[in-house]
Structures
1.
Amino acid sequence: MSTAILSLEEVGKAFGGLQVIDGVSFEVRRGSRTALIGPNGAGKTTVFNLISGVYPVDRGRIVLDGTDITTVPSRQRVRHGLARSFQNIRLMAHLSALENVLLGAHARLPLLARARAPAAVRDAEAALHDAGLALYTGQRVSNLPYGVQKRIEVVRALLARPRLLLLDEPAAGLNPAETDELRQLLERVSGAGVTLLVVEHDMNFVHRLCEQVVVLNFGRRIFEGPPQAVMRDRQVRAAYLGSAADPQDAERAR
Amino acid sequence: MSGYLSGVLAQLLINVIVAYSVFLPAAAGLLNLGAAGFVLAGGYSAGALTLKLGWPLWTAIPAGGLAAALLAFLVSFAVLRTQGVYMVLATFAIAELVGGVLINIDALGGASGLSVTAYAGLPVVFAVTAATVVLVAWLLSTRLGLAMRAIHDDDRVATLFGVHLRAVQIAAFTLGGALGGIGGGLLVHHFNFMDVQSTGVIFSIYVLLYVLMGGTQTAWGPVAGAAFFTLVPELLRQGAAIGPAWKFLETGRFIVFGAAVVLVMVLRPEGLVTRGMFERFAALRARNPGPP
């Protein structure tokens, strides 16, 4: 079995005349926790959208767990073991926390099965409980605090039983306590064998959670390596701080 | 039961079924202003089957539902290529097209309308309505129902969790068409008459209002909406019976009813029946479980 659960090979995407992703290649090791970082506009969310099939790729290949999913419709990618959360919360506003999480299990149930089948509800409630969200199970998500909604999104993705979980800025807008709870949850998820690919601006969070970092800038991969090395890299410093950046400034920024 | 009361009750029950024909697509985020088209297709099909071919009601009315479902299925591919106001216009146009075709078929009464002899009494109408309510409530409790409500809120995210957007929307539209057809079959056989003029755009607008005012969040919304629109005008009609001072309710019932509609829209913008109501009720019961 290959050590890579996800491979992007020379992937490219343009919107009109703007080349947003320009020949990006990288691999995500099975069972790893990898961060995808870069300045605003680097193309991180676009890469997530290409992996999850929201946008079709213009060129290149995406291989998930040995299967070329480049042209697989987005609705079928969940069956290949892929689930994701979103940069801006995209929960179903009219549904309860439990129903949102049950949607994660949608692809695994027969079409006319009860949405609240006892086994599915048990799984969903256990996942909410594990994420410290048991209190909110029956509440409509639009009435819940931002940090709670963020975590419900993660739990919903987990109910899809993914092998690869894409998390788009999961810690954005969370307070330090919530961020720490989220990190612990993700460590437990990772411990259960789920590979994590995380877009995140909070470098402290990245340092504590991830063991591998891929850096994008202007739609190109400029660095791949451990978190300890990332801010020492000249290209990364230039991307974040400008080309004349002093290494000590970079360290302080970190 | 007086003939008047029986007629109002039958109309209410049929309106509930027809409301569900719009509710199901609406639950999946599709606005249908063409309820009249499916009611006409089902009503005329069922009426023709009993009148011309002597079919019994219990086969003719489901056959009318099937005819309307087939129509809905076929047009859904074109309708689902549109969105928002264009979808509203497309469904409206389809209803006009159906009406235009039927009004020109002399064998089915043409502009004079279709008169039938077979009669569907109140018990039949009640039984079919009850079955429809149970069916819709069950459907919403399934994975398909959850998918429909997820599409309503965010179709792209629903797709990423494995929901087949197009298939679910076609299913919702087709099932809605079937219910409209069954409602039409009951309508023509309870009142022994159906015509295109009185089942036109105003009819479709009213059905859409049943759903939007009743609420699209639960299966009980269309029941509340249909009840409001069927019963309130009839109650206002009885204004003079309360006393001479209340006669204005009868004479000015359109004004009073219009004001009542505006009031409901202001006070209950998400509809008369919302999920929040059930949640609050459940919370209240949890706090006061009652005697053991």
Note: The radius of gyration of chain A is 18 Å.
2.
Amino acid sequence: MKISREDVLRVAELAYLDLSEAEIETYRKQLDDILEYAGKLNELDTRSVEPMAQVLTDDQDADATLREDLVVPCAGAEEVLAQAPDPEPPYFRVPKVIER
Amino acid sequence: MATNWTIEGVREAVAAKKVSARELAGEFYKRIEARNPELNAFLTLSPERAYAQAERIDAMAAAGKALPPLAGVPIAIKDVISTRGIRTTCGSKILEKYVPPYDATAVERLEKAGAVILGKTNCDEFAMGSSNENSAYGPVRNPEATDHVPGGSSGGSAAAVAAGLAVAALGTDTGGSIRQPGAFCGVPAMMGSYGRVSRYGLIAFASSLDRIGPFARNVKDIATVLQIISGRDPQDSTSTTAPVPDYRVEIEKPVKGLRIGIPAEYFGAGMDEGVRRKIEAGIELFKKLGCKLLDIHMPHTDYAIATYYIIATAEASSNLARYDGVRYGLRVEGDSLLSMYRKTRGAGFGAEVKRRIMLGTYVLSAGYYDDYYLKGQKVRALIAQDFRDAFTKVDAIVTPTSPVPAFRLGERTSDPLQMYLADIYTVTGSLAGVPGISVPCGKVCGRLPVGLQIFGLAFGEARVLQLAHAFERAGGANL
């Protein structure tokens, strides 16, 4: 067993996920199975392999893709704020963060 | 009115004023009204926008103007792709009321080419799934066998095209989410190379893997749609400046003498016998078309699922951090900011999305990063190398799209790992960034479609389409 209940609680904390008691045990078992399966990657010797983070071709490197920093029109703030659960234009309102 | 509309057929009929784009849109909405209650392929319809566009096309036709390539063509869009003013849920409760303030580049390009956007199609939540059973709005049913899944995650787009509720559709593919539902529903379905189609406006799942691509009734229509949505977009820095060939011309080129690699690793244990026989018949058909068949090896294939589920979930855990109840989507109030985050995300995400966020967070967390995420990135490099090595010997690689035909609704939902293994033949190409298509290759049990997959070199979409077109014309769908 790779994954303990404490591991699940720690990961849920990092990911800001409220989990029910039932979910905690289900995910413990399922993550355990999946990571056990993922362990098969250790059959491969990758000491001399460079990690691949992205599929990039020559014309997708930074020199080819960086553009001039120009001001262009985009969706209006009003339209964006209209999607917020609790807007206070021109702000997004959130629960109090700092006690004073 | 004809039932099996193709893009060319629509354009010709509209140009000759045999049918107006408005009438056609109305006809498709009637079909959707009749069939969608059972199939659940569409989540949101956009008749206002569709009719406005249809009227623009009809005005052009009335004025005798040259019509754009998709004039009046009714198209459906997967619900992870942003559409200005049309609700976009990603199949999730967390975005139940979200209305994007802008269009994805692919949508904008389709509409500019004359397409009529009918509405948004159902999918697994945030495109995470292989059966469409992870949608918060209920599963889609396979139009070929309604007690079976349509595949996923783009199940609604595949079902809509297969049932004749749209002439073409956009889906997205991260590990097989276009190709596998295309196979299950019996329609051609393609992902171009990573970077071929702009991802601007595609709501992110795994950014190094996500791609937008088409479903259609035939390969020529796939070529037409891919042509229109491809090409550099300044809004997506990973979109390539590589020129887009004229795919509709390219597909007519002869396939005689092309070398096709058959990788032994794609015909292993766990493969349905009926599927195996159909794919073998498909390979024979390529031989009859004059292609040279070569047995090849892609030795890291067996590590692809583990690699994929590490990398995709890691990227997902980061991408989905944005759903925090502040800027858009659901908010569940809590007594502090952190408790609001936790409650919102706990209530808004479904089981599979939470599972993947948990897995991705774990493999990126201190102490496990090297063992899982970094290891996964290294094995990804080996899998990409398998493809580069193969393409020094062959022009294309042919495999099954899926080891099994469409399974029954509910059959695989209890064991996530078993569901993940259904993607075994599609995730490899996703990790490598190469283009891939699934084309219909007969049916098993008299009704369940089989898909044959063709991979090509990065930015070699033309070759892939050419082979798929020749295969289709030679009767591949009826093997």
Note: Residues 21-38 of chain A form the longest helix (18 residues).
